[in-house]
Design goal:
Blueprint: H1 3-8, H2 30-34, H3 42-61, E1 67-70, E2 76-81, E3 86-89, E4 94-100, E5 106-110, E6 115-120, E7 123-126, E8 131-135, H4 178-183
Antiparallel strand pairs: 1-2, 1-8, 2-3, 3-4, 4-5, 5-6, 6-7, 7-8
Length: about 190
Amino acid sequence: MSHADQRAGNAKTGRPANPRHPLDWAGLPEAEVAAPWPRLGRRLKLLLALLPIVLLALPSMARAEDVILFDRDGAATAFIDANELIIYRWNGEASAYLQRASDGVFDAFGFNGRHLGWYVAGVLYGNDGEAACAMAQRLSYTQDPTPRNPRQLVHPRAVPDPIPPRPPFDNTFSPRSCDTLLSFGLNR
């Protein structure tokens, strides 16, 4: 083939006629030129098929892990959705939410608007200043958590009560369980 023929290319497709050129489409049937998909390898087809699924899953993969709260006996009783700042009881019921105060401490409110206490440095304190539950890093002993129930729908938030004065926080557990404290956030 002369240089003139190579420069002229394929008159039908307008593409170069050089058979060694990596972008030479002239030797392919029109169906493959129009839709190069059948020429792709199986792995590349699979990758292209899964790409939209992966892209949709990325925001959920970036979620922070839940913070598990343990009671005075070391049993898992609640968890905090670290992205939404919602406290769920272990049965999956959304019972409270956290709201950041100006000094970095979180106020805990029930969905009924009742102020339940404060979440400070991994410990949930009741309005009496005694600990109701804490994350594992704050405890000397925890039991392996049992499988928890799936999250239930979040209740609408009522107008929050005024925040009571903060008591001094005590390093002992309250006789009232964490589950009981969180249940106060569900109904008036």
